[in-house]
Fold this sequence. Notes:
By secondary structure, the chain is an all-alpha fold. 78% of the residues lie in helices and 1% in strands. It has a two-stranded antiparallel sheet. The mean pLDDT is 90.
Amino acid sequence: MNVIAGVRDFATRHLRESGIFVAFVAIVVLFAALNPNFLSPNNLTNIVLQYSYILILAIGMVMIIVAGQIDLSVGSVVALTGAVSAVVVIREGMPWYVGVLAALVVGLLVGVWQGFWVAFVGIPGFIVTLAGMLLFRGLTYRVLDNVSLSPFGGTYYNIANGFQNGLLGGYGVDVFTLVIFAIGVAGYAWSQWRTRRGRIAYQQPVESMPLFVLKIAVVAAVVMWFGYQLAQSRGLPNVLILLAILVIVYGLVTQKSVFGRHVYAVGGNRHAAELSGVKVRRVNFWIFVNMGFLASVAGIVFSSRMNGAQPGAGNMFELDAIAACFIGGASTTGGVGRVGGAMIGGLIMAVMSNGMQLMGVPQSIQQVVKGLVLLLAVAFDIYNKRRAAALR
């Protein structure tokens, strides 16, 4: 009974986060029941490969939204950076790493350009990035001369399509993949234990020990099951390694660094942040530079996945990234949101898209469903705020 009460109390105190997890599990169970192939090793691998670039964009977008801004240009930046890589590698015949560096430099310059207008000129991010969406799409057409370029081949192609497998041998499954996932689970458990001890030291409320152990066990079981499925297929995708590194780094930046705390302060109350000594303009500038960088990373991954660059690449990516953040718990008014939540939101979008595709649902209906899910997520955010205000 104590465990049940603890679960109920934990869910109540973390309604938004627990609601996201419950929704994600429910969607996975639904599609698994409707299509037995949904949880097959090959399909799970395809989900990772097909939607990794949206998750990369969501990492940067959640920081933008937390700071009370928005970026509508990331889809066009994905197209532009992929186009630059294609021109350098395919048309000019230069090494793959030169194309990667060129794309990263372009993404950083885009971030500097938009950050300047937002932070130092004072134009709202919505307007600056709306202009950027048009500007960078037009530049993409110019860079590609209105034609597609392909194929990359070689190492560049393997950025998003390659796998790490066979490094430790295998017995019907890839042992290396299982070892990496086990290390990840151990790291997660250690991190959660440290966080719990820190909260206890500062006399903050924590869940009971049985509930804490249960949470770690459930996460470990799910993660290891997922790793086992990948190990049965083609091994550990390169892009999943890249995504894991980005999630860990940006999770630490947003939750443990001074800059991360300043981002939340600016989004929560800009005026109070200024009075507290936070350099608001600098924060706004660097979050857009960071978004440009991550958009270029997504552009590299997407062009690698497609094995080429197209003028229309990245269309609507910005809306998928924004939807992932709001579904994952980010607030429309800023100051609230986490990288982990954005990842869950992005996975919900990915699972829904993949599941509906397997079922043969028309594209038009898929867009309707995604729109309704986003609307319900924002409505849930508003409900939580009103509920919190009523309890004060």
